[in-house]
Amino acid sequence: MNDENELKLRSSLMVSFGTQPRSRSILGMVGIALKMLMGDPVKYFGLVFGIGFSTLLMSQQASIFVGLLTWGANPVLDVRQAQVWVMDPRVKQPDQGQAISDQSLYRVRSVDGVAWAVPYARSAATVKTMQGNIAAVTLVGVDNQSMVGLPEENLANSMSAIRGRNAAILDGNTQHLIWADGRDPIGQVVEINDNRVVVTGLTSSLTNFSGLPTLYMKYSDAIAITPPERNKLSFVLVEPKPGVTPEDLAERISEVTGLKALTRQQFAAAGTQFIIENTGIPISFGAAIGLGILVAVVITALTLAMFVAENLKNFGALKAIGVTNRQILVMVLSQALLVGFIGYGIGIGGTAAFLYFGQADPSLRGFKALGEIVGGSALLVMIIVLGSAYVSVRKVLKLDPAIVFRG
Amino acid sequence: MTLISPQAALIDQVTKEFPSGNDVIQVLHGISLGIDYGKMTMLVGPSGCGKTTVLSILSGTLSATSGTVTVMKKRLDRLKNDDLVRFRRRKIGFIFQQYNLIPTLNVAENAAIPLIADGVAWEDALNQSGRMLDHLGLGPHKAKYPRQLSGGQQQRVAIARALSHNPALVVCDEPTAALDAASGQAVMALLEEAADDPNRAVLVVTHDDRIFSFADRIVRMEDGRVIDDGLTQPLPPKGLRR
User: Fold this and answer.
1) Given the DSSP bridges, would you call strands A134-142 and A214-218 parallel, antiparallel or unpaired?
2) What is the pTM assigned to this prediction?
């Protein structure tokens, strides 16, 4: 055979490989399987919407759950400038105020490897507006010079607006909790512990678990207007020197000062962990997610089992005619995969729509369908539908084709 | 056209036992039977005599307890399961009492199933089954669904399905049991035409004596044994039977 003819033969073999009878027969039987499924609209739509509903339940509830957990970490995540947080050893989460002595700041600064360390105060307070409203807020005092501790996004006026005496920057996302009438907070005067404070700017902070508006002031102003007590310093925010890891520095600070020192990631995780361990949120959301899985399992398994049972005679006839068990397995799995994909798409689309439109609601702000949730839901749905399909099809695989002759 | 062999199928000293609780029921007692090419052989007898079991064994959907089963020179009892399934798909056409058409496939698709299962491209399979449907007078009904057809028409679709891949052996289980007399006669006329092909054998299991006249040969069974073989009692020429 000359080279040209050999090339032609190879090309024809390669072309025919993709359309050889075996793969065509599988594709053909998949086509028949999908027509069988879609020709039974009650079961088809029952399966699709059952899987869609359970996907929605699983992914939406998981997204809200993760969002709520993140709220516990957000006060830490809002402070992007410092890598290490130093606090009283009894503190478990960022909203747990247990002040440490002012000397702690200097002791931390003296630790080898510290580039800089600044004070950070965080406490609860009540504001009274000139309109007579009363609202609970979280009052945060940030370092006078560096402003470390302020969120980086400003919605109105620059961050330097905080520098005036008794000036405050308010979280613009929760301002409605103080002024429900929608008025512009800039220039508004509020009273905190009998001290007049002027709102001079707006920032955008991440939602925290308490849900209260956050008011940022200079550290000196914040501690001046809070009730008198021996210590007012909540945290020391620390940045390591170049070449020093936050983990090493945190360990070193703990050893030298006897205070608790955590990296930003560790303290954020502690805030999340606190919610998991001390609230009923994991149980209630876990129950909802479990319900979603149960709905998917029950609907998918029962409907597929009914579908297969009702078509048992037809499957028997197909087996008698010469359809192999492998082809039948592919048929049922393709039916399951189709309803799985469509149902999952509807469910995850519903979750995406819920979260997208939910951003307008402050209580849902920042909730996201994380990749892990999207992928995890897909994996669960596929395991459920393929598992249900396999359980259903076992009866067909064991079916004696001669059954079709038995009346 | 060359005649392949005088007999399309042959079972020899076949027995079949079914378990029943702790006991065993013997349904077939050493049956020997050959099915000829170019003829319609009818297996008749009372309910429970074992005729459907013979049909199942001959078509490779049921294995014999003992004895040999040879179809188109292949020993079915020696074929591996996948090979047996493939053999059924390519060499045997099936017609069932209840038609067993898939209700969500249209007529053309139903008739094309053996071709599609064997890897014929969807469009080619539909064209091939369409030609068979045209031949059987079902051309105008190709796009209809089984529920839109009468019982007789549905059985004709089943015949199209059984013949679409041009099998050498066609087995029919009570093909007229669910049909009225006129539809039954029409269906049998089509099967008779199929049996006229010298490269094809047709085996019909029935207890419907209205259709006996279509047979080239009638084999009577009782209690799992052949009690009478029509080969010894020739029927009148076909044209004079009805």
Assistant:
1) parallel
2) 0.78
pLDDT of residue B4: 45
CATH code at position B131: 3.40.50.300
Q: What is the domain partition of chain A in residue ranges?
A: 22-70+280-405, 101-258
> Assign residue B65 a region: left if phi > 0, alpha if psi is -120 to 50, beta otherwise?
alpha
Q: What is the ipTM of this complex?
A: 0.86
Scanning the structure block, which residue is given the tokens 């609907």? A299
CB contact under 8 A, B89 and A322: yes
Handedness of CA B156, B161, B166, B172 (dihedral sign): negative
DSSP state at residue B234: P
Interface test with B, best of A15, A321, A404 (most B CBs within 10 A): A321
Question: What average pLDDT does this structure show over A364-375?
Answer: 86
Q: What are residue B171's DSSP bridge partners?
A: B94, B203
CB of B161 less than 8 A from some CB of A: yes
Report yes or no on B23 lying in a domain: no
pLDDT digits (tens, 9 = 90+) for A242-300: 999 999 999 999 999 999 999 999 999 999 999 999 889 899 999 988 988 888 888 88
CA distance B230 to chain A (A): 24
Domain residue limits at B130:
36-61+78-240
Q: For residue range A324-341, list pLDDT tens digits in order.
A: 999 999 999 999 999 999
Q: Is residue B17 part of a domain?
A: no
Strand A189-192 and strand A195-203: the pairing is: antiparallel
- For residue A69, give the nearest of A230, A269, A237 by alpha carbon: A269
In degrees, rounded to 5, the angle at the alpha carbon of residue A75 between the alpha carbons of residues A69 and A79 is: 130
The stretch A162-186 carries a mean pLDDT of 87
| Rg of chain A, C-alpha, whole Å | 31
| Count of domains for chain B | 1
* Closest listed residue to residue A373, CA positions, set A35, A142, A66: A66
Nearest by CB to B119, which of A25, A319, A320?
A: A25
* Integer Cα distance of A367 and A373 in angstroms: 12
Cβ contacts (< 8 Å) between A20 and chain B: which residues? 119
Which strands make up the sheet holding B7-20, listed edge to edge? Answer: B23-36, B7-20, B66-71, B74-75
Count CB pairs under 8 A between chains A and B.
Answer: 106
User: What's the one-letter identity of residue A341?
Assistant: F
